[in-house]
Amino acid sequence: MGLPTTTDVAEVGEDTFDWFRETVSRAVMPVMLSTRRASDFRASMADLDLGTARLAAVACSPVVSRRTPTHVRRADPEHLQLALVGRGEAWISQHGGASLVSGAFVLTDTSRPSEGVCTAERTETMVLQIPRRALPLRPDRVDGLLARSLAADTGSGAILADFLKTLHARGPQCRPEELRSMGSVVLDLATAFLARQLGDPGEATAEARAQETLQRIYRFVDSNLGDPALTPELIADRHNMSVRGLYRLFGDQPRTVAAHIRQSRLEHAHADLASAELSSRPVQTIAARWGFSSATGFSRAFREAYGMTPVEHRTLSLSAPWHAGDRDPAGHAHHRASHAPTFSAGDSATV
Fold first, then answer.
1. Are 271 and 336 in contact (CB under 8 A)?
2. Cα gap 273→313, rounded to integer Å
3. Which of 131, 71, 80, 139 minimizes the C-alpha distance to 267?
4. φ, ψ for residue 89 (rounded to 5)?
5. How many C-beta neighbours within 10 Å does residue 241 have?
6. Alpha carbon distance 286, 78 (integer Å)
7. SS3 readout for the chain
8. pLDDT by 10s per residue, the chain, length 351
9. Which residues have C-beta within 8 Å of that of residue 87, sequence separation ≥ 6?
10. What's the rounded Cα separation, in Å, for the pair 350 and 100?
11. Number of Cβ atoms within 10 Å of the Cβ of 178
């Protein structure tokens, strides 16, 4: 986990488009894709796990995408996607706005319907996927940036664009812990860039400072999931606050801090158990990797979250058709909302 997944498809034909459509819908989010070039379609994808964020590089022939309310209800990773269109051009429409983007950034939200069209012979895009909760900016203000062309050739935009290009080129040589550190850097750069688009609002308010603290805690949790001693008490101590203050900070979040730790550990274990590369590792080794010290406790929590045991999930995942070939990165897809556990407290052309 943490190493880049790269899948290049050199073949030309309808099989390539089918692969592209299925991979985008499964590994990124459900979306309906269509093209008039299915017979000679070309595409390639590369994915870099940065811990809190992910960076995907996508190149493709002309294609039309449409994400409907049905897709959103089916699976929503709750991400903001900051895309750098480096070659070709893309028309993006969302939340009442629309832009033709070329050599610039564009921001979209997976929680809203959207449409996109790439008409160039080859369009190359890098997409930074940022969990909404990880961006310390007010959601109502960020919504005003959706589907707008944002300059990538001056100021903080140029710095962010250059960093993403370097990260894409050099990231495969980095160790997982280095990539997680780079994830924190790129999140800070993206936050500074988007804040500048919002008017560079001066001194941080108490709410903004609380959001920054919350995001530091989320990053701390993501970097320490493998430590069985990761508890609310430890988190509060490391961030110089009381446990009561920590619980108050999470008061308006979807999950308590303990539930977030538990869900994150389960999601990582769920993804590792579906990985062909990790199929030789015992279930308990994978459980321990993500902070579960008890095999019985892990199995019970996994079954409650996913409706099946870890062994049943591994068997089902590794027997799925897409594991038979080497063109599909399913074994490397992590943090996917379609596999997110649940806790108490469709279109015909879609794959």
1. yes
2. 7
3. 131
4. -155, 155
5. 15
6. 26
7. CCCCEEEEECCCCHHHHHHHHHHHHHHCCCCEEECCCHHHCCEEEEEEEECCEEEEEEEECCEEEEECHHHHHHCCCCEEEEEEEEECCEEEEECCEEEEECCEEEEEECCCCEEEEECCCCEEEEEEEEEHHHCCCCHHHHHHHECCEEECCCHHHHHHHHHHHHHHHHHHHCCHHHHHHHHHHHHHHHHHHHHHHCCCCCCCCHHHHHHHHHHHHHHHHHHCCCCCCCCHHHHHHHCCCCHHHHHHHCCCCCCCHHHHHHHHHHHHHHHHHCCHHHCCCCHHHHHHHCCCCCHHHHHHHHHHHHCCCHHHHHHHHHCCHHHCCCCCCHHHCCCCHHHCCCCCCCCCCCC
8. 333 444 554 445 568 899 999 888 887 888 999 999 888 899 999 889 998 899 999 999 999 999 999 999 988 999 999 999 999 999 999 999 999 999 999 999 999 999 999 999 999 999 999 998 888 888 888 999 999 999 999 999 999 999 999 999 999 999 888 898 898 899 889 988 998 898 855 434 566 677 778 888 998 999 999 999 999 999 999 988 999 999 998 988 888 999 999 999 999 999 999 999 999 999 999 999 999 999 999 999 999 999 999 999 999 988 866 544 433 333 333 333 334 443 333 333 332
9. 59, 120, 122, 123, 124
10. 25
11. 14
Kindly state the tokens that stand for 309.
């045991």
For strand 114-118 and strand 63-67, is the pairing parallel, antiparallel, or unpaired?
antiparallel
Quote the CA–CA distance of 315 and 306 in Å, as a whole number. Answer: 14
Nearest to 302 by CA among 319, 320, 284: 284
